[in-house]
Amino acid sequence: MNSKTTTTTETATATESASGTQLLSAQNVASLFNSVDAFLFDCDGVIWKGDKLIDGVPQTLEMLRSKGKKLVFVTNNSSKSRGQYAQKFHSLGISVSQDEIFSSSFAAAMYLKLNNFPTDKKVYVIGGEGILEELRLAGYTGLGGPEDAEKRVELKSNSLFEHDKSVGAVVVGLDPYVNYYKLQYGTLCLRENPGCLFIATNRDAVGHMTDLQEWPGAGCMVAAICGSTEREPIVVGKPSTFMMDFLLQRFEVSTSRMCMVGDRLDTDILFGQNAGCKTLLVLSGVTTQSTLQDPSNKILPDYYTSQVSDILELLGR
Amino acid sequence: MNSKTTTTTETATATESASGTQLLSAQNVASLFNSVDAFLFDCDGVIWKGDKLIDGVPQTLEMLRSKGKKLVFVTNNSSKSRGQYAQKFHSLGISVSQDEIFSSSFAAAMYLKLNNFPTDKKVYVIGGEGILEELRLAGYTGLGGPEDAEKRVELKSNSLFEHDKSVGAVVVGLDPYVNYYKLQYGTLCLRENPGCLFIATNRDAVGHMTDLQEWPGAGCMVAAICGSTEREPIVVGKPSTFMMDFLLQRFEVSTSRMCMVGDRLDTDILFGQNAGCKTLLVLSGVTTQSTLQDPSNKILPDYYTSQVSDILELLGR
């Protein structure tokens, strides 16, 4: 738990649980609001669900901006680049600049850049177009991804599976077109190309690939490559705080005056806590109140509420 | 190290390494031979490589049989059923009965049988035909496997991925036709069907799917499902000693009078050691002498030699 602001009103209220996690209320919302200069939002399950905007989000974001709060969108979804994300926001009627978006696809490219990964080395991608686009924007040559979706392997005597020896990094993210070709390609690069980096956009077990149900997430593909290579990846998405350095540089707000708003305990809330931010769990995504309050759950946000628009509603009371 | 027989000759020989692992030699081969009633062989990398028999194997097996030794073939490869394995042996000119073969596909079916898995429940398979055939022989209904190789998912709003609620176990083995459909099917069964078992044939990281190189093994697909379900599997193949109960029942030989012969330290040799057998590593498969002797290697066989036929050659001297 980070920087919990405690007032007499709060400690007295019945909405505070034994653990210290508080239900967001008309009593404590102002204290959260006043102690924060930047709100960091996860997207899926917070801003939207699949292609459907969650009720009251545009009005809430507008109010926060009008009050001078900085807004940042931090997503583990690597299927889109930042530009593609900005387009998605626009198509849903929310104006967001590309600079306010921090996706794990961008983080993967930035990890390479910060670590002076040579531009004459290539990057093999198990994942979507978003990763390849961010790599291109950062000046790197990506291989694999959607291009290898339909490729098949030949398991015949004397047939050699060839891979590019100049691949110096394998980036693994969510890939609905994962296949044995890609698994073998990534595995060979990591096992045979000296010094080849293994980068995971994130390790989410499942995610809402469709609005009605959850599907295997990047954690599935990343684990597959861990299994075949017996290596552990560098994780650049949440809950790793790798992206926080960029956020700090751009926004010049101390992490103690940031609030991470998300629907996942093990990525969003843990990320916020790892970085020293305040944390607000919304129940509009994958986490239910009973999961939050289960004794086995050790990740406790500072606040929780049903959805983002509660901030607007509670402040307006 | 198990039941190491030490004679003056052996301890004096220069072929004994500091660790106690002995190079098989004309001096120690008789002692191994005389202390063993049953030889357990791994197949790939020991008997054959891909579709190619390793030199001298038929003659060695024939000699062992003629001297009254029992022969057992214990393989983690789940792509074939025991019947299909017996055929492969015959096609290579070696006469082996189905009862002498213990494959991880058979082990998966036997695990269900021993645990009274109800026959009105179904089993979803991420893996090959061998698993489905062993399930059928044990009286179970298998789903998935090769049948789902070309299936694609629809990631559209309002489209629900349906799965069979009567699936009570998911068996995962090596699957060169792994795809997102199968990963989602297995994941949904394990996350949503109450009490659904998660069984792994084995967790080998890689294997010689072709003679020229290694490919991701069952450990890759098993890890993928661990990643999406956040569960750990029951492993029935090596190094788990689950199959040993069947071996003991059939052959009535105490494990201290068995010798496990294999090419992998982390499966074959560990399996032998876990079960209390003597162990002989052959260097005709995935393990090199430098891997064996690397200080980071903690799995030390009793003996090592270049290939199975050395037993015949050394005894004949």
UniProtKB/TrEMBL annotation, chains A, B:
Quote one Gene Ontology molecular function term.
metal ion binding
**Active-site residues, record numbering mapped to chain:** D42, D44
The cofactors named for this UniProt entry are: Mg(2+)
Name a GO CC annotation attached to this entry. Answer: chloroplast
Q: Which domain of life is it from?
A: Eukaryota
- Binding residues for substrate: K238
**Can you state which reaction this protein catalyses?**
2-phosphoglycolate + H2O = glycolate + phosphate
Please share the entry's free-text remark on the cofactor: Divalent metal ions. Mg(2+) is the most effective.
Where does it localize?
A: Plastid, Chloroplast
Q: Which UniProt keywords apply?
A: Acetylation, Chloroplast, Hydrolase, Magnesium, Metal-binding, Phosphoprotein, Photorespiration, Plastid, Transit peptide
Q: What class of enzyme is it?
A: hydrolase
Residues reported to bind Mg(2+): D42, D44, D263
> Which Pfam family, giving just one, matches this sequence?
Hydrolase_6
Gene3D superfamilies (alphabetical): HAD superfamily/HAD-like (3.40.50.1000)
Secreted as a keyword of this entry, yes or no, is no
Main subcellular localization, coarse class? plastid
Q: What EC number(s) are associated with this protein in UniProt?
A: 3.1.3.18
Q: What InterPro entries does this protein map onto?
A: HAD-like_sf, HAD-SF_hydro_IIA, HAD_sf, PGP_euk
Query: Which GO BP annotation is one of this protein's?
Result: photorespiration
The residues the entry assigns to the signal sequence are none
Q: Which SUPFAM superfamilies match?
A: HAD-like
Q: What does the sequence similarity comment in the record state about its family?
A: Belongs to the HAD-like hydrolase superfamily. CbbY/CbbZ/Gph/YieH family.
What does the record give as the function of this protein? Photorespiratory enzyme that dephosphorylates the 2-phosphoglycolate produced by the RuBisCO oxygenation reaction.
Q: NCBIfam families in the record, alphabetically?
A: HAD-SF-IIA (TIGR01460), PGP_euk (TIGR01452)
Report what the protein is called. Phosphoglycolate phosphatase
Q: Which organism is it from?
A: Turnera subulata
- Give me the gene this protein comes from: PGLP2_1
